Every structure is written in structure tokens, then in C-alpha cells.
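Per your request, structure below.
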């Protein structure tokens, strides 16, 4: 069952957070199908990258950074939540 986070809008397949950033395609489906915190707004629009994660060897795909988490998509894994702690550990 699709649940639009409070304060967000969903129109024509585009989920829009209160800060104006858009969530589309598989990331939109993921947000709508999970108990998504309305404050977990995207900090950017989706971006295509050559590696979706730095900590683990990963393939290209798309990713989107949110206030509390990051979503990634690859053809092998579909949409999943990135281990942000691992990404920060990789930076140090």
C-alpha cells in the first residue's frame, strides 16, 4: 500500500519532498512502500554514478542522498539502503 509521507506530494509519478527535491522511479516506489519518516527528505535529486558505494566494490547505477540515509540502485540489486556508516568509515 502506497503511503505518501506527510507534507510530501505525489503527482504523475514524481514524489516531491517539502524542500522541492524529487524522488522518482524505483526510489519513489521504495519510499511509498516503506514507513518513511517525513523528515527524511532528499538532499539532492537522483544522480547516475559509476560506483554507487565507495566502501564496497560496486557497479554503476543511481543513488540519492536523504537527510537520514541513502538509497542506491544497481541492475544486480535493485533499490536498497546504503550502509552510510561504512561509507563514512571509508572516508577516514
Amino acid at each position: 500500500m502506497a503511503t505518501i509521507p506527510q507534507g510530501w506530494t505525489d503527482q504523475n509519478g514524481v514524489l516531491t519532498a517539502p524542500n522541492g527535491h524529487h524522488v522518482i522511479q524505483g526510489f519513489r516506489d521504495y519510499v511509498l512502500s516503506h514507513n518513511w519518516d517525513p523528515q527524511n527528505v532528499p538532499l539532492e535529486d537522483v544522480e547516475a554514478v559509476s560506483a554507487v558505494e565507495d566502501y564496497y566494490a560496486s557497479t554503476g547505477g543511481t543513488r540519492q542522498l536523504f537527510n537520514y540515509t541513502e538509497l542506491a540502485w544497481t541492475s544486480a540489486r535493485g533499490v536498497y539502503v546504503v550502509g552510510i556508516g561504512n561509507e563514512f568509515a571509508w572516508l577516514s
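The beta strands are 9-11, 14-16, 22-24, 47-49, 61-65, 70-74, 78-81.

Regards,
D.
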